[in-house]
UniProtKB/TrEMBL annotation:
Domain UPF0261 span(s) in chain numbering: 2-175, 183-400
Domain of life: Bacteria
UniProt cross-references to Gene3D superfamilies, sorted A to Z: Uncharacterised protein family UPF0261, NC domain (3.40.50.12030), Uncharacterised protein family UPF0261, NN domain (3.40.50.12020)
Protein name: Tm-1-like ATP-binding domain-containing protein
InterPro entries: Tobamovirus_resist_UPF0261, UPF0261, UPF0261_C, UPF0261_N
Transmembrane segments: none
Xref: PANTHER family: UPF0261 DOMAIN PROTEIN (AFU_ORTHOLOGUE AFUA_1G10120) (PTHR31862)
One of the Pfam families matching this protein, by short name: UPF0261
Length: 402
């Protein structure tokens, strides 16, 4: 029998969780309950809060005595993050569901993120319509708005709870029987202004028996790719669009954090890297651009996205950061430089055409990389030319086949 783990505060929301438990069981599914609250639960769980606290090397009685809600949330969350993956490995459940406000969401989502991709994870939350990145991260958690607070059974909450239960029940009951041919997985990074390049590279790789996963380099895209590489899913990385480093260094809205461009190198995964879209830093609507950038070269990509051309100083800083990350690689890495432009709007006649800015970037890379680790390939074309895309793809194939 397929089983759904129900994790939550069974002390303050025990009635609601009992309703959900009975509803799941009415669908012919088993339930496995995990109590994340501080006090005594309304019904007996399969995993007590004492066990959750112990997983975080804490005694629940001491936690109760402190009367510190924030501390309790932090400790129990850490316990859940450690305990839940172990319970899954031991076959205790096949999917997980939870309900809550900011506290309940913060308690359970770290544990959900620690589970493998593909395991059904549903979080019904009062903060599901806001910025969910702190809760979802790079995982496949489904965040569902609770509409009303998770406080009592009423005509709205019961409908939301029912929809959530039926959703996770459907994920478990219906299986995809279509057989998908197993192919080596390649991860590639793309932006709107490098789409022609990645499209040509993807088609080239697919014709030669590879499956290509394309990640939109919007911050979360880069982090998602790095997580999958770290998780052992990826056999080769075509990281041609490293634009997230421009946002990280300059202060744009699409940064991927300080660990971008590390996973492939440290995991001995073949990688081909380029400088795609490093001519730009991303902001929201034009009015949201920080005042300190007044007078810079801007391009309104669409009503909600404003691009700013990177200058010489910024390109030097970006180049140094790429050098630092590339030189960390434990296996050979190939760096491809398109001498005539790094994006669709950084070519002659386009608004971000900047040969002087690019020269600073390219020289910084040439002078900084460790040639024992990084193979440098320079091509007299722009990044979106088919020849560039196919050469980068073939280089990755050669590296993977070795």
């Amino acid at each position: 029998m397929k089983t759904v783990a129900i994790a939550g505060t069974f002390d303050t929301k025990g009635t609601e969780y009992l309703y959900v438990k009975e509803l799941i069981e009415s669908q012919g599914l088993g339930t496995f309950t995990i109590h994340t609250g501080v006090f005594e639960p309304v019904f007996k769980p399969d995993v007590t809060n004492k066990e959750v606290a112990e997983a975080a090397n804490t005694d629940i009685e001491k936690l109760i005595a402190k009367k510190d809600r924030a501390l309790a949330t932090e400790v129990l969350s850490k316990g859940m993050e450690k305990l839940v993956p172990e319970l899954y490995k031991h076959g205790k459940f096949d999917a997980i569901i939870s309900f809550g406000g900011t506290g309940g969401t913060s308690l359970v989502t770290p544990a959900m993120r620690a589970l493998p991709i593909g395991i059904p994870k549903v979080m019904v939350s009062t903060v599901a319509s806001g910025n969910t990145e702190p809760y979802v991260g790079t995982s496949d958690i489904i965040m569902m708005p609770s509409v009303v607070d998770v406080a009592g059974l009423n005509s709205i909450s019961t409908k939301i709870f029912t929809n959530a239960v039926f959703a996770i029940a459907g994920m478990l009951k219906f299986e995809n029987t279509k057989v998908v041919e197993k192919k080596p997985l390649v991860a590639a990074t793309m932006f709107g202004v490098t789409t022609p390049c990645i499209t040509a590279a993807r088609e080239y790789l697919e014709k030669r028996g590879y499956e290509v996963l394309v990640f939109h380099a919007t911050g979360i895209g880069g982090r998602s790719m790095e997580a999958l590489v770290d998780g052992g899913f990826i056999e080769g990385v075509l990281d041609l669009t490293t634009t997230e480093w421009a946002d990280e260094i300059i202060g744009g809205v699409l940064n991927a954090g300080p660990n971008r461009l590390e996973a492939a190198g440290k995991n001995h995964i073949p990688q081909v890297v380029s400088v795609g879209a490093l001519d730009m830093c991303n902001f929201g609507p034009y009015d949201s651009v920080p005042e300190k950038f007044a007078g810079r070269n801007f391009y309104k990509h669409n009503p909600t996205v404003t691009l700013m051309r990177t200058n010489k100083e910024e390109n030097e800083a970006i180049g140094k950061k790429l050098v630092e990350k590339l030189n960390l690689a434990r296996e050979k890495v190939a760096l491809f430089i398109p001498l005539k432009g790094v994006s669709g709007i950084d070519v002659e006649g386009q608004p971000f055409y900047g040969p002087e800015e690019n020269k600073v970037l390219f020289d910084t890379l040439r002078n900084g990389i460790n040639r024992n680790v990084v193979e440098l390939v320079e091509m007299d074309c722009d990044i979106n030319e088919v020849a560039f895309a196919q050469a980068a793809a073939q280089k990755l194939i050669d590296m993977m086949q070795k």
